[in-house]
Design brief:
It comes from Actinomadura chokoriensis. This protein is mostly helical. It has one domain (17-167). The chain has helices at residues 2-12, 19-52, 56-69, 71-91, 100-120, 124-135, 149-167. The chain binds protoporphyrin IX containing FE.
């Protein structure tokens, strides 16, 4: 199976990663996905501390830490995950839109990266200001946008992406080159 695929790739002129590069890229891919999930967990802890912390100072510091330290590491790990995923897709038999599980992960990764830039980052100044108000001992300010959604949505999507990566469900999205009918397969 692997030999047939290599031959087909050579005939198509497709890029193919050697074993060492594939392993290295896969390790970076998995570590970046793990880092991304870990950062989401930290976000959830900070949001919960900001909301239910025992003192105003603790709550304020949680919001300030959230606003100061989270977005760039999160975006960096998300982009590394995306780039290594693209390399793995293009450089292996999986392709980018050949199998459903890869295509869905690609969409999820792109949507989450967009949400970080468009929805999360622009609100961080407001969160910082909110935290400062608490730390200064002022009474609870009137308004802050709901911060529970970002970690909840992201953790759900990333857990789903991890399940897809491991289970590789739903088979092929496109027909095989060479005119053979599309087949549903879990192998690879
Ligand atoms: C959304 C975040 C993502 C997460 C959490 C994630 C997670 C993972 C994990 C845990 C694996 C290892 C699976 C295994 O070896 O059994 C994996 C492999 C893989 N991922 Fe991702 N991934 C993500 C995004 C992407 C994207 C955007 C692409 C492609 C555009 C992609 C393409 C691949 C491919 C092709 C493999 C298999 C590599 C191989 O076996 O050589 N992933 N992913």
């Amino acid at each position: 199976m692997a030999v047939q695929e290599r031959t087909r790739a050579r005939q198509d002129g497709r890029l193919r990663l050697g074993r060492g590069w594939r392993r290295t890229t896969l390790i970076v891919h998995i570590v970046s996905a793990g880092a991304w999930i870990g950062i989401d967990v930290i976000v959830a802890v900070l949001v919960l501390t900001g909301r239910f912390g025992t003192t105003g100072e603790v709550r304020g510091l949680a919001y300030q830490a959230l606003a100061t330290f989270i977005v760039w590491p999160m975006l960096t790990s998300a982009l590394i995950c995306l780039v290594t995923g693209l390399i793995l897709g293009l450089g292996t038999r999986w392709g980018l839109v050949r199998y459903w599980w890869v295509a869905v992960k690609l969409v999820l990764n792109l949507v989450l990266c967009t949400l970080i830039v468009v929805a999360l980052q622009p609100g961080m100044d407001e969160v910082n200001e909110y935290g400062r108000t608490f730390t200064a001992g002022a009474p609870e300010p009137a308004f802050i946008s709901n911060l529970f959604f970002p970690p909840a949505v992201s953790l759900t999507a990333l857990t789903f992406a991890t399940v897809l990566a491991v289970a590789k469900p739903w088979g092929r999205l496109t027909r095989r080159t060479g005119g053979r009918l599309a087949e549903r397969t879990r192998d690879a």
